[in-house]
Amino acid sequence: MKSCKKLLVFSFVVAIVVSFAPVLWAQEAEEPQPAQPAQEELVAEKVNINTATVEELAQLKNVGSEYAARIVEYRQEHGLFEKPEDIMKVKGIGEKTFELNKDRITVE
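RESULT FIELD:
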């Protein structure tokens, strides 16, 4: 008789856990995730090479903080860039880097 009670209590507990499991899983699945910008938004963001900071310039493809600092230094020594292609006048910034970024670079 005692083992029947234990079996009945155990079965009842298992039944409750099993019946609430989908509800708990559904709540976990519905938790909001932190918003992240869409890939298109990241690509579409323009960088004005005449006003951008080192940190902003470093976001360009193949341009790290060292090359970004060179861009700012060149701009300070030679004045504003007249056209996006002028970024290739900066030592270390070549045609490949320009081609990777030409849709993001602006001088306006």
